[in-house]
Design brief:
The structure is a homodimer of 537-residue chains. Chain A is built from 13 helices and 31 strands. Chain A is α/β, with parallel strands linked by helices and 537 residues long. The first copy, chain A, has 4 domains: 2-41 and 54-114 and 245-314, FAD/NAD(P)-binding domain, CATH 3.50.50; 130-242, FAD/NAD(P)-binding domain (3-Layer(bba) Sandwich), CATH 3.50.50; 334-449, 3-Layer(bba) Sandwich (FAD/NAD(P)-binding domain), CATH 3.50.50; 452-536, Rhodanese-like domain (Oxidized Rhodanese, domain 1, 3-Layer(aba) Sandwich). Chains A and B meet through α8, β22, β23, α10 and α11 of A and α8, β22, β23, α10 and α13 of B. Chains A, B: Its cofactor is FAD. Chains A, B: Residues 1-287 form the FAD/NAD(P)-binding domain. Chains A, B: Belongs to the class-III pyridine nucleotide-disulfide oxidoreductase family.
Chain lengths: 537, 537
């Protein structure tokens, strides 16, 4: 059997090496139009920042190694210009020699990935100091520009993971960094409570963060950026990391079915609509393991996993892809942000409104052991079933640990009710007897049991607002963070002793900010005969 | 309803506070014979080492706080001397005043814990410099002795978690430390491959580790320790942390059913054999969530979880304890050791022989990002089903992350085949596109698929040994670590090109050390028509 793989960066190389291990006889050919295969793309920001100094380290496998170790033919700078699914033939162009030729295949694997999108800004195409960052070749260009032109001021357009990582690494080089995004927060899929911490961390480390603005015009060969707020930014360099689009043109031209956004449609064994053609990685849309909805899986870790699995499937194993969760981590100076599954933002974008959330800020390890820091955890779940929809984690330490644990819990189908039952490694340097993830579960359980006792302020009638007692139970000296005015303030620790101060006969509304306090207060009041509800904004 | 809790350290305090939150009306009384409740016992070594300086931080809750915040009565220095299950009555003694009185209960919760066992060594009872370490009072005594007597040389008997933590902390104080254990390795439940790293780390940091010896005689008021190997140790201080025994005497005297080792027998709702009497924590034996066998749950995290769950159960929730996994972490100077479930040692002790293991040593995060270190992972599973039986992890970074993830996977009932499918947070500072835990799963899957191709050297006949070709596939320059002699050495990377060197007609035995190499070599040879087996020692 002859198998051709188009694209050798992440999923393609994983597929090919696994497929070779499963079978010595098959002929395997990788066609890659770029200069390299098997690149650690996620490492590029750190290479630019000088954190990773060895360029060779970014190249996980060379064509020579794949030939030597795996008996796989690799042709870089060879572009597939057309696929003929009926005849099982490809048209290939050698980009260096210009030579064109045909190849036949028994099975074809599309791992063509995605490419950066340049936003339609007047002047950006002709700017001599503007770059995108996707391939090692892109990275080489930026590194070379920095070394030869010695820019002092760099502007990054796009405050997603790549933009934020670049900001940190350019600061590492001593550059002045401006980070621009049209959204009103950094790290787009994160909800505002978490993104706020990241924005502050960027600013604390000298990054000028400009949100809610776009670049409308690039002038002076890229040295002048005219923003939508009327201001003008002078910059020595512009890096655009605003998003990617799937490299699915050859698939489309060959008649394969695509989603409206250009991703290739595959089934749960990565088969496309054409016989003997499979696709993996950034170019496909798969289904969410959590909601079952279509979702792109734009992570190199997902591409690797899919490539490995497809090799088993093409080798005859009756396996299928369980779907994509989406688990990521980003270092933002001294903070780590990590996300699993959905945020409120992505749920809303998917049209899902039936969810509730837990937000807690426990210490990452025992508070009495040195260097304990607050860990911000937001967990989102389905209130009627307790199904976990996603988690967001921001803090200095132990962040990726909790997101990894949550992802394992989701893979096992655990509900939020089952989180407290997960035994997690405890010793004072590492955690508390009840790990933060256990605590998030306990709070979720309490919320679910109290679900009919929680109301949104906006859902209260005018009468309810007038008659009810709005109770603030924070300890004295805590600063206010909510916007609902309270009628009465009694610290939780004094509540039992001061019950007589609370009017009877009407509902007591406990103002919810975060944590277990409102829940504990509601238990005390309900246990003493009050009609009590927790009110959220 | 009146509920009495005997013992307020870990599970008892957790039970009481949760039970109060569930119901305001019940009367809750904690009787604790020691001086404190709610102590962070696991922090004691760090308090002694000066890492934790605030003694108050070790006391998570005082009786006054429990009264104030939770309306719970706590009486410390009150010992329960007898239980009368039929009459629902307790005999209580005030240890300070000597007063004796009776209490009645509707429900009784035994959270009496365990106490250190002093081994029967002649002279140890009268040594003035010998200590155990369990309670805060014990910790105070040791701290006081160090401050007033300024010992230079300390001997620790027992190289389990507490002994190892104490060794690190006493070194932190600049003391000379000798660690003695009768076993032939440190950190008893860990298998030797992992324990070896820990022993070396202790020695590297100046701890004199003496294994396979016992103390036979304590002389000169504790200043002279006569060891079983004939040597004599001079010491200024001796701390014995060799093990604990359950405080189940009052339960036994009241007629409750105990296991042979003295732990109280409970069902999966913590009910003992006596009506309205429940027990949690170190004093009970529960069942393993992995094997279903009886197992003590000697971790404060387990006691806390059990206390919380029992409160829900006594409040009428139809819940049950899913069983104990056993997840722990220990800091050993610059290393972390963490364990989940069973080791080979504990499996063998439980009479279980149907298991296989994976041992891999990947980097904890992307090898090209600074400070990547080897993480040692041993995973044990059931070969026929792929069920995960346990994991052991030793390394500098990311150790507790992987054990936590594995524990979550076990809680969700995932098999080793499903480990690669868990999406784990990747970015170069945190992991690789295939996380070490994913890799362990891949290796396990390969092993299972190859199960009939793996043989133990001892199981080979003399003829098989003579006829077969024993092939060493390590790269040139790697030092030997096994004891089976090879007939032929061909590095894996040269294997395809040098196939003609390998005799045909008889089985090729690939020597197994670790990792994926032998598997890959077997795939190449099998794919080229060889009868091939991987041979283990």
């Amino acid at each position: 059997m002859k198998v051709i793989v188009i694209g050798g960066i992440a999923g393609g190389a994983s597929f090919a090496t696994r497929f070779r291990r499963l079978n010595e006889q098959n002929e395997i050919l990788i066609l890659e139009r770029g200069e390299h295969i098997s690149i650690a793309s996620c490492a590029l920001p750190y290479y630019l920042g000088g954190v990773i100094t060895d360029r060779n380290a970014l190249i996980e496998r060379t064509p020579a190694i794949l030939k030597q170790n795996n008996n796989i033919d690799v042709r870089v700078r060879h572009e597939v210009t057309a696929i003929d699914p009926a005849r099982h033939r490809l048209s290939v162009k050698n980009l260096d020699s210009g030579e064109q030729y045909e190849e036949t295949y028994d099975k074809l694997v599309l791992s063509t990935g995605a490419r950066p999108v340049l936003p339609p800004i007047s002047g950006i195409e002709t700017a001599t100091n503007a770059f995108t960052l996707r391939s090692l070749t892109d990275g080489d260009r930026i590194k070379n520009y920095i070394q030869t032109e010695a820019p002092q001021q760099v502007t990054i357009l796009g405050a997603g993971a790549a933009g934020v990582e670049l900001a940190e690494n350019f600061r590492q080089l001593g550059l002045s960094v401006t980070l621009v995004d049209q959204a009103d927060k950094v790290m787009q899929p994160y909800d505002i409570e978490l993104a706020d911490f990241l924005e502050k961390e960027l600013e604390k480390n000298g990054v000028d963060v400009k949100l809610g603005v776009t670049i409308q015009l690039v002038a002076d060969s890229g040295r002048e950026l005219h923003l939508s707020d009327g201001s003008v930014l002078n910059t020595d360099m512009l890096v655009v990391v605003t998003g990617v689009t799937p490299n699915s043109e050859i698939a489309k031209n060959a008649g394969l079915q695509l989603w409206a956004d250009g991703h290739i449609i595959v089934n749960n064994q990565f088969a496309t609509s054409a016989p003997d053609i499979y696709a993996i990685g950034d170019v496909i849309e798969t289904t969410s393991r959590i909601t079952g909805l279509p979702i792109p899986s734009l992570l190199s870790s997902a591409a690797n996993r899919q490539g490995h699995l497809l090799a088993d499937i093409l080798n005859g194993e009756p396996l299928h892809y369980p779907g994509f969760v989406g688990v990521s981590a980003v270092k933002v100076f001294n903070l780590t942000a990590s996300m699993v599954g959905y945020s409120e933002q992505t749920l809303q974008a998917a049209g899902i409104t039936n969810y509730a959330s837990v937000f807690i800020t426990p210490f990452d390890h025992a508070y009495f052991y040195p260097n304990a820091k607050r860990l911000n955890i937001k967990l989102i779940y389905e209130p009627d079933t307790g199904k976990i929809l996603g988690g967001q984690f921001v803090g200095e330490n132990g962040v990726d640990k909790r997101s990894g644990e949550l992802s394992a819990a989701i893979a096992g189908g655990l509900t939020i009710d089952e989180l407290p039952g997960i035994e997690l490694p405890y010793s004072p340097p590492y955690s508390a007897p009840r790990d933060p993830l256990n605590m998030a579960g306990y709070v979720g359980i309490n919320q679910r049991q109290q679900a009919n006792q929680t109301v949104k302020y906006d859902d209260l009638t005018e009468t309810e607002r007038c008659d009810g007692t709005f109770l603030d139970i924070r300890e004295t000296g805590k600063t206010a963070s909510g916007t609902i005015d309270s009628d009465l303030a009694i610290p939780l620790t004094e509540l039992r002793d001061r019950l007589t101060e609370i009017p009877t006969g009407h509902t007591v509304y406990i103002l919810y900010r975060k944590g277990l306090g409102p829940y504990n207060a509601s238990r005390i009041l309900a246990g003493n005969g009050y009609d009590v509800k927790i009110v959220t904004e």
